[in-house]
Each structure stands twice: as structure tokens, then as C-alpha cells.
Amino acid sequence: MNSKENTEKSYTEQMRPDVKMQSIGLNAWFGQKQALKDINLTVKANAVTAIIGPSGCGKSTFIRTLNRMHELVPTAKMSGQVLLDGKDIYADEVDPVQIRRRVGMVFQKPNPFPTMSIYDNVAAGLKLTGAKKGKNLDEVVKRSLEQATLWEEVKDDLKKPGTSISGGQQQRLCIARAIALQPEVILMDEPCSALDPIATAKIEELIVNLKNDYTVVIVTHSMQQAARVSDFTAFMYLGQLVEFGETSGVFENPKNELTEKYITGKFG
Amino acid sequence: MINNYAFRKFKNRLFFVLCLACVVIAIVPLLSILYEVIARGAPQLSWEFLTQGPGTIGVSAGGIGPAIQGSLILIGLTSLIGIPVGILSGVYLAEFGNNRYASAMRTVNDVLTEFPSIIVGITAFSVVVLTMGSFSAIAGAVALSFILIPVVARTTEESLKLVPNSVREASLALGAHKWRTTLSVVLPAAKSGLVTGTLLAVARIAGETAPLIMTVLGNTYFFQGFGQPMDALPLRIWRNALQPYPELQAQGWGAALVLILIVLALNIGVRLASRGRFRK
Lengths: 268, 280
Prior knowledge:
The structure holds 2 protein chains of 2 kinds.
Chain A: H1 2-14, E1 19-30, E2 33-44, E3 48-52, H2 59-66, E4 76-84, E5 87-88, H3 96-102, E6 103-106, H4 118-128, H5 137-147, H6 151-154, H7 167-179, E7 185-189, H8 197-210, E8 215-219, H9 223-229, E9 232-237, E10 240-246, H10 247-252, H11 257-263
Parallel strand pairs in A: 3-8, 3-9, 6-7, 7-8
Antiparallel strand pairs in A: 1-2, 1-4, 4-5, 9-10
Helix pairs in contact in A: 4-5, 4-7, 5-7
Chain B: H1 2-41, H2 47-51, H3 65-95, H4 100-113, H5 117-132, H6 137-162, H7 165-173, H8 178-189, H9 191-206, H10 210-213, H11 233-242, H12 246-273
Helix pairs in contact in B: 1-12, 3-6, 3-9, 3-11, 4-6, 5-6, 6-9, 7-8, 9-12, 11-12
């Protein structure tokens, strides 16, 4: 009991004010298969942290542990800690629903709600969580769509189905849906992998702008994308964190041989 | 070489013809039934036939009003009991059914779906009729619910499973609770499947006869109360078909046509009412 309190306290003290999230000794499994091995990583506030690595290295699993989406997979298990503002989001008294409200997520494939209009998709977060009380929905929808740089394109079609717009627009709609709740952190799981280069460029520009208000963690297959949008880069391989540092450092002067091989395209 | 090609082409033709033949074999009896019912039933239709009770033999044939009323009451009452229970069971199986208890329930449910309806009738007879001490509309609705619930539960589960998981995750990732996700996101996305499945099930119970013999019994009066025996179209058809009098047999044909029309009207009506903005 005493030692637990002590460790918690020391973690809290370790947290610098500019650190938004931190994983400590994080392991994750799917059934018997270990997907993450002892990940220790800090996510800085108001910055973009990119996670790169070959397919199956655990990138997606890692960010899904950051908002407790990992545990929705029936065979999933995890151990270790994930701190959000210095508090363990896996502590017994924490409801995952509250964590997901604070740590939003954008998925690989655009997934607007098929039965809702563009407007309702953006307002969905507020409606589904009962947080719309005392808020002007019209204003929230407009502001979120503007932040997601989609407002000009859809402002006359707000009543149309969310699935009626193009893939790139749908993905920005999903980003608008996430930011409508004004989360503290936004996780993005390969948000551009289903999009063409023009839509990708728009979303990348948006990501860079988002860090003024939010902390962003993005998983990406594209090293160029990581280099373009992120402030920090983590390279993962076979479930382990191989290298982590400022993006310029990781790309120009990698410390680990594996990282160098990966970013120069020798494998992966 | 040429021969081989000709033979393959012939096999292709043969396959097509066989498929077509099977379709014809399946459809001919259906069309002939429909034709018979319309040809023999349509002349019966009149305002009196639809609204009056049965008359006296030799004086006037009367109508099948009580049977129509009874069938509508039965369909409504059964839907009221069966659809909510069925849909909620299906929701449990699809959204929370990742455990051994649920797979056992799924198996039992599948068996119940194929249960002989006369046994369902006997069950309702011993559980409701004997307990209440009388044949009754309620007993009929309970029996029909036994048939309706497993079918609705199964189709609900299947329709919900067709909703992509990414949609659920999108909602959960916004911080919505599971029940809210199910109610506001998953169920609406599965709506068209739900409506179709439920309609088919209701159409099926509308035509059930065997369970009604054991439960509502049938009589010649208009609605007397939920605790009293009641007439219903399938019962009326069955009883009239057994009668030696041509007028009554003809009435049976009319009743059959009315039953078909009611099912059709239900189908079209619900489809129109549930047509959403985002129908594909």
C-alpha cells in the first residue's frame, strides 16, 4: 500500500508540465501473443508525436492502449501504466468512458456514422455522451468543421448523409467529430492510408494546425509523413520501442542501426 | 477441339436451363395458389363480408368480421409482447453474447425457431389456458410470441452482426457508453435488416393455425375481452374448409384472400413508414 503510493507520487513528480501522456513498462497481449514489450514513452503536450515502424510492430496497439480501446478486443490483455496528466488511466476507479472522452481517436478508415447527416456526425459526440447540455450545437458543429477545414466544402450540405462525401472529406469529418468534444489528446491511427495525395496533404496541414490546441499522436506508415508533420518520432519494431526522440534527430542522426535501416528503406 | 468447346457450351446451356426449370417448379404452385385464392376469394369480398359476423345457414352467409378483428388483435398483441423481447434478446446475443451462456442460448433459440407450432400451442395451453381457466386472446398471443421471439432474436442478431465494428469503435472512442452506442448507432445502422426480419416473422405468425386451436379456440362473436375466446382468420379458414356447405367453403376462400391482403398491407405499410432519409 505504502510503496504503491510512493511510486505513484514519484511518477507524478517525474511528470514535467509539458508531458501530456506517458507509458510506463507497458506490455500488451492478444491471447498468448505479446504485441507490446515494455514500452516507455512520453507524449509532449501541444506537439505531434509520430509512431513509425513496419506492419505488425504494435503501433496501432500502442495508441489503442492510450485511450483504452485496446481492451475492447476480446482476447486483449495489458500490464503497466499509462499516465494522463500524471494519473494512471488504468487505475481501478477510472471509467474508460471518461478517458475516451478526453483522448479522442481518428481511425485508419474513415468511419462516419452511416445513419447520420454530416451535422449529426459532428454533433454525435456531444449527443451520445450527454454533454450537449448548455451548448449551442450549431456553433460547436461550425467551429469543429472549420477547425477540420471542411466547413467551406460542406456548409450547404449539412443535412446530407455523412457517407455521401468523398473519402478525404469523410476523414476530415471524423476529425471534426473527434474535436467537437474538445478532447485533450487526439490519437490518429494511419489517418491518411486510405486517401489520395491531395486529401493527405490537407489532413497533414490540419494535423500541424491541431497542435496549437491539442496534443496529437499519429501512427503512420509513411516516413515522409512523420518527417513532415511531427515534432517527435518513435520507431517501433516487433513490439518494442527501438528509438524515440525529436523528429529531426531520429531522421538525420538515428542512434540505432535498425532505425537507420528502416528510414533508409532497407527493410519494412 | 471444336467438339470440346461445343460440349462446354452445351453444358453451360444445360446448367442455365436446369436452373430455370427449378425456378419454374418452385413458382408454379405459388402462382396457382395465388390464382385460386384470388379467383375464388375475390367474389366474396363485400362490405358486409368484411364487417358482419357469420350468418345463419340458409338465411344469409354473413361475414368474417370477427375473424378479421381477432387476427388484427392477435397480430398487435403478439407484436407488442414478441418484438421488444425478441429484439432485446438479439441485441444481447450480438453485442454482449461473447460468453458460454450466450452460445447455449443461441443453440436453444435456433431449436425454438424450428419448433413444431402445435407443440407451442400445447405449451401455451398448459401454461396459460389451464392456469387462467379459459381459452383466451391472451393465450393465443403468448403462443404466437413463443414463435415470434426466436425468429426476431435471430434476425436481430444477424442484422447487428452485419454492422461493421468500425462504427461501434467510432462511437466508443467518442466516450459513449456501450448501451448508448447500441441504441443510437448500431441499431439504426441495422434498421432495414431489422424491419425486414421482423416483418417476415409477423407475417409468419399471422398465418399460424395450430397454436390458435389450442389457445384462442375460435368462436363466432366479435371481441369479448382479452380473457375470452376469439376468432381469427386462419381458424376461420380451417373451420370453413371442413364444412359441407358450399357457401361456407366459399367464405373460407374469401377469408384466405383477406389474410393474404393483411400480410401484404402490413408489409408495405411498415416499409413505407420506416423508410429513412438514408435508405439506399
